[in-house]
Amino acid sequence: MFFEQENISSAEYAGTREGADMMKVTETIAAISTAMSDSGIGIVRISGPDAFEIADRIYKGKKTLSSQPSHTVHYGWIKDGENTIDEVLVMLMRGPHSYTGEDTVEIDCHGGIFVVRKILETVLKNGARAAEPGEFTKRAFLNGRMDLSQAEAVIDVIHSKNEYALKNSVSQLKGSVQRKISAMREEILYHTAYIESALDDPEHISLDGYGDTLVEKVEELLKELKKLIDTADNGRMMQEGIRTVIVGKPNAGKSSLLNALVGEERAIVTEIEGTTRDILEEHIQLNGVSLNIMDTAGIRKTEDVVEKIGVDRAKNQAEDADLIIFVVDSSRNLDENDFEIMEMIQDKNVIVLLNKSDLETKVTKEMIQEHLDKPMIEISAKEEEGIYELEQTVKEMFFRGEIAFNDEVYITNVRQKEALEQAFTSLKQVKRSIEDGMPEDFYTIDLMDAYEALGSITGETIGEDLVNEIFSKFCMGK
Ligand code: GDP
C-alpha cells in the first residue's frame, strides 16, 4: 500500500540492506509537515546532510544554528534575504537521533497557509528539494530507523479512519508485528541452520529423529501464522470499514436509509421503481465503527436489460458483504422478491429493517421470522426513527468481545497478508516433505522460502544473517 503510493522499485521493496546501502541519500529534503489549513502553528521539516546549513542561511537569531547541540530549541526569525517572513521556534535534531536518522531541522512558525508555504519556498530556494509524499518515512526505513511494517503503520496512522484502526496502527508502529514475525523467523532460521550444519558435519551432528521435532515445531508455526492471517480480515474491517450492503426490493426505502445514515442527499430517492440502478458507496461512522455502505439496485425479476445488470451486481455485492442490511417495506405485503432475497442471504450477517413504520404495517416480525432468523428492527427511514437502534445493533454484532483490540497483533495490509500466506504454504510443504520421508535438504529449501516471505513483511532478507548464524552456532571443531 505504502510502496505502491511511493512508486518504489522492487529492489527497495524487498528492503535489502545492500539496497539500502546503495541508496544512501545525499539530497536534503523539505516539506510542510502539518495540515494545510489555518491553524495555530505550522511546521516545515528539513532532513538531510545540509539541513543545518540551510537553516543557518535563513535563520536570524542570537546564535548560529549549526554550532548548537542536538535536541535544542531556538527562538528567532526566518528571513528571505532582507524580507522577514515569520517569528519562529527552530528545533534541531542531529542524525542518527531523529525520525529519519538524518540531520533534521523543524521550523515551527505561525499557522496559516500563506506563511507556511512562504517558509517552505525559502527553504527550497536555499538548497533543499521538495520531499515526495512519504519520503521522510522512506528515509527512516532506509536508515534502519524502522522496519517495513512500522513504515507502513506510520502511513496507516495518518490514514486511520476510526479509533480502532488507529489503535491497531499505533500498536504496529510500536513493533508488535515486527516482534512476532522476528520470533518466528528466528525459530525457522535455527532449524535451517541446524539441518545445514548436520548435513555438513554428520560426524558431530545427528539428524536421527529430528523430523519429529521439526514437524511439531512447524505445526506450531502454522497455527500461529493461521491466526495472524485470520486477523487480516478483521484488520481490513477496522482499516477500511465493514463492507455493508443494503438490499431490498425496489421502493423499500434503501436510498432513504442511506441518506438518513449519511445525513446528506446522496442517493436519489424517487417513487419510480428501479431508480437506483448502479451502486452507490459511502463511508460512514457508527459509534466509532467504520462502515463502507453500499446502496444497490432494488432486487426484483426484470426484463429491462440495464436494470437487470444492476440487479445482478447487487446480488454479487451481497455475496461479498461482511454485513447485509435487508430493508423490507412493511407497508406492502411480502412478495416473491422479498422471498428471493431472504433465500439469498440465509447464511450471511444480516440485520432486517422493517421500514416505513410510520405507515400502516402489513408485515410483522413473525412473518419474516418464518423465513429468516436474524436481528430485526422497526424503522422509518423517512422520519429517521430507529436509526439509533440500528447503530447499536451494528456495534454489538462486531464488537461484542469477538474482536479484542488490546494486545492482539492485527495484520492490516494486503502485502503483509500475502507474505504470511506464502510463508504458510512453504511451511505446509516442509511438513509434507517430512511426512513423505524426503531428504533433509528438501526441508531447508522450503524453510528458507518461509523465512524469506516473513522477512519481506519487516523488510529484512536472508543473506548474511543466515551465514553468520550457521557459523556462529554450529560450525564446530574447526
Ligand atoms: P429504494 O428504491 O429502496 O431505494 O427506495 P427509496 O428510498 O427511493 O424510497 C421509495 C419511496 O418510499 C420514496 O417515495 C420514499 O419517500 C418512501 N419512503 C422511504 N422510507 C420511508 C418511510 O420510512 N416512510 C414512508 N412513509 N415512506 C418512505
Automatic annotation (TrEMBL):
Its EC number is 3.6.-.-. (6S)-5-formyl-5,6,7,8-tetrahydrofolate binds at residues 45, 106, 145, 478. Keywords: Cytoplasm, GTP-binding, Hydrolase, Magnesium, Metal-binding, Nucleotide-binding, Potassium, tRNA processing. SUPFAM superfamilies: P-loop containing nucleoside triphosphate hydrolases (SSF52540). It comes from the Bacteria. GTP binds at residues 251-256, 270-276, 295-298. It is an enzyme of class 3 (hydrolase). Mg(2+) binds at residues 255, 276. InterPro entries: G_TrmE, GTP-bd, GTP-bd_TrmE_N, GTPase_MnmE, MnmE_dom2, MnmE_helical, P-loop_NTPase, Small_GTP-bd. K(+) binds at residues 251, 270, 272, 275. One of its GO terms (cellular component) is cytosol. Its cofactor is K(+). The keyword Amino-acid biosynthesis does not apply. Its main location: cytoplasm. GO terms for biological process: tRNA methylation; tRNA wobble uridine modification. It is found in: Cytoplasm. GO terms for molecular function: GTP binding; GTPase activity; identical protein binding; metal ion binding. HAMAP family: GTPase_MnmE. Homodimer. Heterotetramer of two MnmE and two MnmG subunits. Belongs to the TRAFAC class TrmE-Era-EngA-EngB-Septin-like GTPase superfamily. TrmE GTPase family. Exhibits a very high intrinsic GTPase hydrolysis rate. Involved in the addition of a carboxymethylaminomethyl (cmnm) group at the wobble position (U34) of certain tRNAs, forming tRNA-cmnm(5)s(2)U34. PANTHER family: TRNA MODIFICATION GTPASE GTPBP3, TRNA MODIFICATION GTPASE GTPBP3, MITOCHONDRIAL. This is tRNA modification GTPase MnmE.
